[in-house]
Amino acid sequence: MFVSYAPGYFVDIGDAHVFPMVKFPRVHAQLIEEGTLSPEDVVAPAPAREEDILLAHTRDYWTRLAAGQLTPRELRRLGLPWSEGLVMRARLAAQGTLNAARHALAEGVAGNLAGGTHHAFPDHGEGFCVLNDIAIAVRVLQREGDVGRVALIDCDVHQGNANAVIFAGESDVFTFSMHGRNNYPLRKPPGSLDLELPDGMTDAAYLEILREYVPRILAAFRPDLVFYLAGVDPYVHDRFGRLALTLEGLRRRDEFVLRTCRQAGIPVTITLSGGYARDRQDTVEAHCNTYRAAREVFG
């Protein structure tokens, strides 16, 4: 199974920061160590090209981001300290998702051990999201004629607000977001289908909703490619989640989404998205479960 990862996915932002940057190298190391991935499965991306970034982002935002000229207000909204390494990390992750999408189209499934940055708008970043990797990938694939219709299945606990805005009114991109009703962002622009979940939802209720809607979306829309944003912040011990899924529930969620895509004959690209468990090892384990599920479903 092709998977994108580079050491540059990690940037030192300080151990006290709430964003668990360390999860990226830890997930990679764990998957290799246990044999879920082999070293040959993992390919380091080059940085995304400017011409591709500008398909999804304004030139003003990209130019000022690259030059370190974001305002203090923009940096507070982003939630991450600027550095050249942070910009490079965003470019690597964006290309990683594009590379994975191309391999998924050819092989049925592929993934990126980062990505799913669904709060990055064309003209600004927010919520720890610098560049919108999925929007960049979709725009490149559209430009090259590789896809007709694309579906985003977003199971991060936070609504994919930027994706909803970027793809608003586009009949060939379906944005499905299943997220916490009372969670960030405060303003939730409508996507193609948004399901708002109450605080404290547990495994059984969550999985029941998922089983109702995902097959229906795939059957009705028939996408050429699915991007699966497999955020693990619905976890019961997540700092920002407010839902109550267990690690087992999250794995069953992943298995269901991936198996449903495979049974429908629809290629799927996996991205990590969010995860902020109080014990960072829980976040690592939950992300690893996504790839264990992919290996089980796709072989």
Structure overview:
With about 300 residues, the chain is α/β, with parallel strands linked by helices. It contains ten helices and eight strands. Helix 9 (about 245-265) links the parallel strand 7 (about 225-230) and strand 8. Helix 8 packs parallel to helix 9. The radius of gyration is 17 Å and the shape is globular.
β-sheet strand percentage? 5-15%
Number of strands: 8
**CATH homologous superfamily (4th level) name:** Histone deacetylase domain
Q: What helical percentage do the residues reach?
A: 40-55%
Using the coordinates above, name the CATH class: Alpha Beta
Largest sheet report: 8 strands, parallel
Order of helices and strands: EHEHHHHEHEHEEHEHEH
Supply the number of structural domains: 1
Question: Which structural class best describes the helix and strand composition?
Answer: alpha/beta
In one word, what is the shape?
globular
What's the CATH topology label? Arginase, Chain A
Could you say what the CATH architecture is? Answer: 3-Layer(aba) Sandwich
Work out the radius of gyration.
Answer: 17 Å
Q: Which strand order do you get reading across the main beta sheet? A: 2-1-3-8-7-4-5-6
Q: Which regions are unreliable across 5 or more consecutive residues at pLDDT < 50?
A: none
Q: Could you tell me the mean pLDDT?
A: 98
Task: Quote the distance from N terminus to C terminus.
Answer: 9 Å
Number of helices: 10
Organism: Chloracidobacterium thermophilum (strain B)
Protein name: Deacetylase, including histone deacetylase and acetoin utilization protein
Keywords: Hydrolase
Pfam families: Hist_deacetyl
